[in-house]
Write a structure and sequence with these properties.
By secondary structure, the protein is α/β, with parallel strands linked by helices. Helices cover about 45% and strands about 15% of the residues. Helix 1 runs parallel beside helix 3, helix 3 packs antiparallel against helix 10 and helix 4 packs across helix 5. The relative contact order is 0.15. Belongs to the enoyl-CoA hydratase/isomerase family.
Length: about 240
């Protein structure tokens, strides 16, 4: 499901489950975390390009898995750890959103250092329609990226943003035909300067307590809406 390869100065990580729009199951989250936690040696590319296979970036959490959860708090925490590994990677992470990104897919993109969309990208947080919300760090990162007002509107309404709307709200920084070209552009910089810039801009010493509370709230809502989630999955 998670493929990695090195292509020149860029490491490419691909969510490779196109038949399910690259929806993430619990085991996939572990593999994704390990892909970004893998220690980098001195020859490792300074830039990682994160993409989805097929016609979607990522549909978020696999609804079959969500409907079957025995421990939704643990599932949320597993997702948070995977997404945090993306954010904390020593590499510069460029996320290319081509096609739909929903729920956990948006949260995964939020953890990247640079988010780039193609003209056919769409982004949405549909969790509210299931009586849930994005609990892989989304409530922490979304207001940082969009601002509190836009974040509340986006998450509460469940609306879907096209690429231009995502650009206006700051959810992505560019709309281009080939997101990989942005990864190549950044990789042309000096590796030590890239790493130093990321460390300084990413230096924030809070959020863990917020994420624990986020996971607990997700678990409470999951239990309250378990039947609705199962029905939605079976449609």
């Amino acid at each position: 499901m998670i493929r990695t390869r090195t292509d020149g100065d860029v490491r490419v990580v691909t969510l490779d489950r196109p038949e399910a729009r690259n929806a993430l199951r619990p085991a996939d989250l572990t593999v994704l975390r390990e892909a970004f936690e893998a220690p980098a040696d001195g020859d490792a590319p300074p830039v990682t390009y994160l993409r989805g296979a097929g016609d979607a970036f990522c549909a978020g959490a696999d609804l079959d898995a969500v409907a079957a959860l025995d421990d939704p708090d643990a599932f949320a925490r597993r997702g948070q750890r995977a997404v945090a590994a993306v954010e904390e990677s020593p590499s510069i992470v460029v996320c290319g959103v081509d096609g739909p990104a929903r729920g956990g897919g948006v949260e995964l993109a939020l953890a990247a250092d640079v988010r780039v969309a193609t003209p056919r990208a769409t982004l949405g947080e549909p969790g509210v329609s299931l009586g849930l919300f994005g609990a892989w760090g989304g409530t922490v990162r979304l207001p940082r990226v969009m601002g509190e007002g836009e974040a509340l509107d986006f998450a509460l309404s469940g609306r879907v943003l096209d690429a231009e709307a995502a650009l206006r709200t700051g959810l992505v920084s560019r709309v281009v035909d080939d997101p990989r070209s942005v990864a190549d552009e950044i990789a042309a910089g000096e590796a030590d300067a890239l790493a130093a810039i990321k460390r300084r801009i990413r230096d924030r010493r809070e959020g863990e307590a917020q994420e624990r509370a986020e996971a607990a709230a997700f678990a409470e809502l999951h239990d309250a809406h378990a039947e609705d989630i199962a029905r939605r999955r079976d449609r």
